[in-house]
Amino acid sequence: MKLRQFEQQQNYIFGLTFANGEFIETDLTPLIKDHVNATELASARIDQDWGCLEFKDGAVDIEPDTLYKWAKSHISPPH
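Structure tokens predicted for DUF2442 domain-containing protein:
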């Protein structure tokens, strides 16, 4: 399930919109904190070919199916 759009909400919490139109807000801290520090979160972008979320000019990326499964099982509560 490719990622179509994202928005960094707060720290490691991202709002993600997938190819099926589903929007999920999730905390990516456990998934990426060891590889992406808080100041590097601003480097987030979508790889247009693969539909994955990547950081640090592609040095760190999250495969789209992995990201979708993570988001579905780690939905952030409304704030």
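The radius of gyration is 11 Å.
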